[in-house]
Amino acid sequence: MLLVVLVFGSLLLGRYPKPGFIGLDEAIRNPIAWNIILNLRLPRIIAAVILGSTLALTGLVFQTILGNPLVEPGILGVSQGAAFGAGLMIVLNVKSPLALPFSAALFSLLALGLAWSLAKAIRFGGWIIRLILSGIIVSAVFSSGLGILKYLADPRSQLQEITFWMMGGLSGIGWTELKYLIPFTVPVLILIFILRWRLNLLSMGDRTAHSLGISPILEKNIFLFMAVLATAAVVSYCGIIGWIGLIIPHIARRVAGSDTAKSVPTALITGGIFALISDDTARTISTGEIPLGILTSLAGALIFTLLMVFSPLRRHL
Questions:
Q1: Nearest 5 degrees, angle CA 57-CA 133-CA 266?
Q2: Is residue 43 part of a domain?
Q3: What is the pTM of this model?
Q4: Are residues 33 and 77 in the same domain?
Q5: 255-285, pLDDT tens digit by residue?
Q6: Which residue ranges does UniProt annotate as crossing the membrane (predicted)?
Q7: Do 26 and 59 belong to one domain?
């Protein structure tokens, strides 16, 4: 109910014809305002909900399968790999609309594989610490690669696009972008939602899962592939948006418990609400739009601090 109310309210919230909310009757009578609502705000609101739900759910998948409460696409380098893949297509001036998501997905998978392999190669510390360290290394590598692409990019056009990926935002989202974003994200969200009960089995360990009649390695790879594909899609069109995939799964488990039958739908809805509120704030709080990635990082850091101080999460670290 809260998500539905926020979506409807966001349609009427903006800076035209005046800052704040506009009445529905006035919006219908004003053709310019109605055009803004249908062709600017509505696709952006849909993208915000998809973005938040995707990052929240993929973060939950990563944390459940890897058995690590501190992993999310950004920490593992998946988001940075996707941004590097998108930046590479921009510098190479590839105009195909599908080039960005495919390149982003390819480098996201590469980043995840590198982080996983490096964590297994590290000889000290527990699995949580090793995975975090390897994720930091992989993130730094792809962030450096993205910096090199910025140096090579045309400062009059390409540099601005790459800067957008690094800061994140939904200002460039329209119906055309949604046409390519939805097929890479919504089917993944639906599949994970349908198969969410199997995440409970995978979280019990490989031996237990195998004794219950499933192939843990195969199913883990399938879930990780779907999570990486969806993450790459939203990053390629929305840029790097941090912290959603880290804090929302913890909030979902705090509200609904660790059973993925309940925590998965909770994460989907909560992620959509968080991203929508953040985007509404980014586009209305000042005359110039604030990059969405900055707001989610600020809010995420504050919320995560509260979770660390006041929640049972501390006992698992």
A1: 15
A2: no
A3: 0.87
A4: no
A5: 998 889 999 999 999 999 999 999 999 999 8
A6: 41-62, 98-119, 131-153, 180-201, 222-248, 260-278, 290-310
A7: no
